[in-house]
Structure formats: C-alpha cells, structure tokens
Specification:
By secondary structure, this protein is mainly β. It has 3 domains: 136 residues, no CATH class; 178 residues, no CATH class; 159 residues, no CATH class. Helix content is 11%, strand content 60%. The chain contains 8 helices and 45 strands. Strand 7 and strand 8 form a beta hairpin. Helix 6 runs antiparallel to helix 8. The longest helix has 13 residues. It is elongated and about 130 Å long. The N terminus and C terminus are likely disordered.
Amino acid sequence: MRPTSSHLLLCCCLLLGIGWALPARADVLLTARSVSVPGVRLQQVTVRIDESATGGLHLHLSAAQADVPAMGWQRLGLTLDGSLQRDERLHWIFDGGVRLAGAPGGALSDAHVNIQLSESANTLQVDILQGKAQASTALPLDQLSHAQISLKNLPAGWLQGLLGTVWSGRATAGRLDAELALDVRDAGLQSSGQFTLNDVGFDTPTGTLAGQGVDGNGRFSLDTTGGPAAIDLDASLHGGEWLLGPLYAKLPSHPVQLGLRANVENGVFELHRLRVSDADALQLDGALAFDAKGELKTLKLDHLHASFPAAYQRYGQAWLNALGLRDMSIAGQLSGSLDLRGDGLHSFAFDTDGLNLADANGSVAIDGLRGGLDWTAQGERPATTLGWRSLQFYRITNGAALSQWQSRSGTLSLRQPLEVPVLKGQLRVAELDWRPAAAKGQRLETSLVLTGVDMAAFSHAMGWPAFPGTLGGAIPSLRWVDDRFELQGGLSASLFGGFIDITRLSLQQPFGANPVLSGDIALSQLDLGAITSVFDFGSITGRMDGAIDGLRLVNWSPVAFKASLLAGGGGRISQRAVNNLTTVGGGGIAGGLQGAVLKLFKTFGYKRIGLGCTLQGAICQMSGLEANGDGYTIVEGSGLPHLQVIGHQAQVDWPTLVRRLRDAINGTAPEIH
C-alpha cells in the first residue's frame, strides 16, 4: 500500500470517513496500539479488508477508544463495518454501519453510513442516517480539519459532547436542522452557519439557564480557539419557555428576535450583548453574566420598553411573583434601564405616560401612574416627577398626588413635601430619603403627618363594622431598616369619644408571603356605649381603658399579645351583654342569682368590668379583675340586683375564643340557662 494512500486511510478512518488506495490483493490487516492525527486519537486500532462473499471487498475497523476532544468525545468505542468498492471513475465507496459506544445522547449508536472518496476531486463525502436523523459532511482531502456539514432532524442530545466543551449545560429534548462549516484546530474549533430548532430543551446544573419547547431559526458562530468560547447568535424564536437568571420568558406563537454575544469558560457565562425584540410586548438591549456557581454577576438593561399586559404575561410574571406580587393586572407602557451587579444595585430609571397595575389580593394598586424616577449610586441625576390618580396599599385608597424626586450621592429624595388625600383626610410626607443600594441597614427614612382620616371609611376598607371618629397622628420618623419598617413616634386615633395610641409599630417583609406586624396599642377613655352600638353585642355604658402590648400578627393573623381591658368607673350593662361576656369568658353567674330571676331585668348596674387575654401560640391565658376561687371575676356588680360574672376557663384555644367573639358580635351567642 502506498504511503500516501495509507495516510489517507488512517486520516479518513479517524474522522469517520475513509480514503482508500488499496493494494491489488485482498486480506489486508492493519493494527496499531495508538494512532493520532491533529484533533483525533485512536487506541487499539484494527483495520481488516478482505474479499466479500458476494463480491467486492469487506472492510471492518474497530478502535477500543476514540477521543475527539474538540467535539467533546472521550473514550468512545468505534466500529465501522461494511462493503468497499471502486466505481468506474475510480472513486472508493464504502457502504455499511457505524457504531459509537458511549457517545452523548446515543449519537451514532447504530447508524448507516455511506462514504465516498475521490482523490481526483480532492473530496471526502460522508452521509449518515440513523432513524429520522441525517447528517452529510464534505471534507477536502488536503484539509481534513475543515468540513461542510448538513444536519436534518438531528436529536439535540447528539450535540451534548460539543456543548460540554463550552458550558456546563445539557440538551434535554428536541431536534434541529443546520447547515454549517466546521474547522477543527489544535486548540479547539471554529464553526458557523444557520439552524432551525424544533421543540428544543436545555438546562444547567444551577438551574439559572434553561429552556423547553423552543422553536425557531437563526445564524450562529462558535470559536473555542482563543481562550473563552465565543458565541454569537441571531435568532427568530417562537413558542416555548426560556430562563436567563431572573429573566423568565414564555414566548408567543409569533417570532421573537433574540441576539446575543457571549463568552463561556469554566462555568462562567457572560452575555456581553443581549437583545430581545417582541413587537407587542418587550424590547430590550443589555448584558447578563453568571459566575461558575450560577450566581448572577451582572444584569444590565440599557434600553427597555415594555407594553402591558403582554410584557407581564410573557416576561414579568415570575419576577414579580418572587417579590410577592402575584396575579398582577397591568396595562400601559413603561420604558427604563437597570444596572444590577454582584455587589448590588448601581442604577435604575423608568418613565411612563400611563400605567395601571393591581395585584389579586388588593395589597397594591396604582391607577394612572405618570412620570418616572431616575437614580444612580454615584453622582447626581436630573430631577423627575411622578404622579398618580389613585394609589392603593393594603386596601387603603389614596387620592391623586404629584411628587418630585432627585438622586444625589446614592439617595433618592423628595424635593418638596408630598400631600396625598386619604379617606377624607390627608397624609403629608414632609421628607423622604431612599437608598436603593443599601442591602442592609437603613434603606429609607421619612416623616409623616396623618390628619382627619374618616374611621368609618377606614373600617369599610378593612372590612370592619363602621367605627365613628377620625384617625390622625404624627410620625416623626418612619424607617426602613433591613427587611422591616419601623415607626418612631406613634399614631393617635380619636375614636368612640376617647383615644387609641399605637406605638413601637414595625412591619417586617411587607411585600413577602407572610408579613409580620408588631406594636403596642393603648386605649384611653373609650365610650362603651358607642362601641357596643356598633356591634350586636348588647349595651354597656361607661368608659374603658386598656392595652394590647406585644401585639404580633403574621400574615395579618394574631400569634401573640397581652391584652387587658378595664371599665373601672361603673355603668349599666344589658342582659344580652352579660350573656355574651359570660360566654366569652367561659364562665357563669355567681352569688346564687338564678337564670329565671335574671330574666326579669333588662339592665344591671356594675362597678367594674375587666377582661384579659395573653396569647402565646394558639392558647389564650384568660384573666379578669381578680382571682376568685377557681375562676376570675369579669363583672363586679353594683346595687340590686347584685351581679357578678365569673370566668372559669383559664386557658382557651385561640380559634375557640375568636368563634365566641364572632358569635357574640353577630348576635348568635347562646343565652344563659
């Protein structure tokens, strides 16, 4: 066998193509412990050529281990077996089967291959068929490192080896067509061409990059020869879902343009250019980067324009869900920019000429938002104006207002006091300083004055009975520290002819799934006649003082407090109110007064009424005016008939107590017999 022909034979075999210049006789056996050419290494190689029983020649090639590092193929078993013949134009033609053992995605595990070698045309043509997948490759014999490749219905998993050389992700589903050029170099490979995707899926170990059901087409280039793998992609995609870190997209049925330029090395993924254009929903230009652990390093959106509701439904829903804003209703348009890095937020800006949004549970709602904000962590930005027709926060609706803002040295501040109508009263924000980049410590500080808020309107908004009176107070300092709002000073409500003062108020994780509210409440000289007239509880006259200390609500449900209520100045109490107090305290009537006698009187005089509850977990420790044998006094009578109500249940589970109070307020509490 001529040396040149032998070299061609080995090179073609190594690249799954064969160039032959056979000797005149059959029964040729070649063996080698190791054979290497640039980019390919085979070990324990055997090539046998002998006469076929049906005429012509039979070729069998096997390698115990085949490595093509640039393609990500390592330690594969290789078998090539079939007929070999020469046509009238002196072209060598091989037709048979090829098997790769251990290739990612089962690539070429049982494929049919046709190889044609023409020395006169300097061409090696390889056609492979496995199931619905087809691959055709043309290589010049004098430059076997270069190939023109055509792929049809190729399982995406077949490319896993190649993908594994540039990133840690894996193809999970789908097929593709492609027309591409491939150059295998000593230090990697270069490839470019066009492709079509059909129901393709992929993911990464960290879960920060993923996709499924993706269809589309486009052009790409890949270069792994100069350090980090360089990827350029311009594609038109439709359908399916994408996840790029915090950006989740549910693509529409119409085409969405995607352009990116990325570098990948050792798990570090840097998108230097990211461009998305979805005509009726979203346009953006920016950059994105992750470290080797999948943590976000950079999210930079230089130009962002969103049209709602389509932008929310396709791109914003997952992100807002993570902020606790679920099932949002959004309409309008928004333009902006964002610079978020591993060390925190560096800048943001947005502007809108009309935006309406609301979440499903009524926590947040904005109508007619206009204007914008412009903030940067360094330097100074131009002043902006932001206004709205109405703003709702936790069921409380605020009226139209216009605010002016400016960013200096990392602080976004009100340029002048802001006055907001709220429930027939007014909220005046004297000053407000917000530090968006503060990951810990004090993020926001403001001072507020609340005047003339109608308690009936407030009660209606909260779903309570209509309390009369007004709510007002001054908050010298309200601070946002770490993940909670802290109130310095207090709120004072003028209710039922007395006052309710709220102090030490804090709200933790206000936008989370389980906000935590804590504070202390002091009650002073409330008119019991006015209070009981609101509820169907029964009539009580007199004045009441009290306190609810250590109040703690999780997701707006009480989990802890120490409450004490005292009407120490005497008054009158109706039979119905006696029954309800007795039921709530789990007690009875003392002093031998029988139910039949009690029914002869509609009201009774009392000297004192006292009731206490200390809630810990789901148990309320009950108390009253004073201990009395095995119980505690709730009502101490005055005059005749002399009335005394004793509570006998020292511990009551909280759901039971709430049910008793609800029944009493709704007028369904049982009478005493």
